[in-house]
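Sequence design from tokenized structure. All designs in this work follow the same two-part layout: the structure record, then the generated sequence. An example of the structure record is given first.
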């Protein structure tokens, strides 16, 4: 009987310790954004394919050479990254048994990333790009990506540090590797010396 009382008390304490309320607003916003950018991505592919097949029917300013990188960036930064962020915000809370460390940083992350995607689309269409394969963003967008990613990284790391379980699930190790490893790879691949306006010189 005493053993049963001790077990019940332990279960009650454990349930109280792991009680939390996930905040899924940011994850939902990123998921919706991912779907929206997937549609934009599909439209961009159709337009670029049309330009490739009918080069004489388009304005000289909107050539295939100018527009060809847009679908890749929309698919990667618009569709895929938003889906990745949604997965991280949704599952990290459940694997750490606590809500994300800062809802405010999460909101800044969402707004900042959507601003980057729109900015990327606008500058790409207008031809404000660098002449480097897979690194066409102007330097201002590069800086913005690093700044917003740092906000995301801080929110994620502090959530891990304040988790309510001792162990780390394998998913969190993969998330950590991607989140931490992105910045040095991106920075080294986009080093440049800023010039006037959108111009820059590759380092």
């Amino acid at each position: 009987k005493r053993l049963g009382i001790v077990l019940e008390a332990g279960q009650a304490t454990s349930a109280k310790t792991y009680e939390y309320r996930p905040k899924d607003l940011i994850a939902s916003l990123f998921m919706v954004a991912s779907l929206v950018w997937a549609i934009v991505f599909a439209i961009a592919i159709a337009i670029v394919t049309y330009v490739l097949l009918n080069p004489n029917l388009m304005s000289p300013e909107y050539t295939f050479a100018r527009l060809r990188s847009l679908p890749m960036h929309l698919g990667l930064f618009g569709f895929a990254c938003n889906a990745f962020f949604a997965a991280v915000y949704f599952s990290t809370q459940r694997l750490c048994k606590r809500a994300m460390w800062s809802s405010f940083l999460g909101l800044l992350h969402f707004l900042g990333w959507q601003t980057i995607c729109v900015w990327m689309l606008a500058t790409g269409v207008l031809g404000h790009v660098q002449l480097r394969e897979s690194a066409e963003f102007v330097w201002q967008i590069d800086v913005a990506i690093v700044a917003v990613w740092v906000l995301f990284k801080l929110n994620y790391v502090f959530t891990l540090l304040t988790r309510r379980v001792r162990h780390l699930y394998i998913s969190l190790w993969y998330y950590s590797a991607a989140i931490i490893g992105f910045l040095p790879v991106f920075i080294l691949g986009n080093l440049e010396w800023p010039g006037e306006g959108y111009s820059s010189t590759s380092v």
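Confidence is low (pLDDT under 50) at residues 1-16. We note this feature because it recurs in several other targets discussed in the main text.
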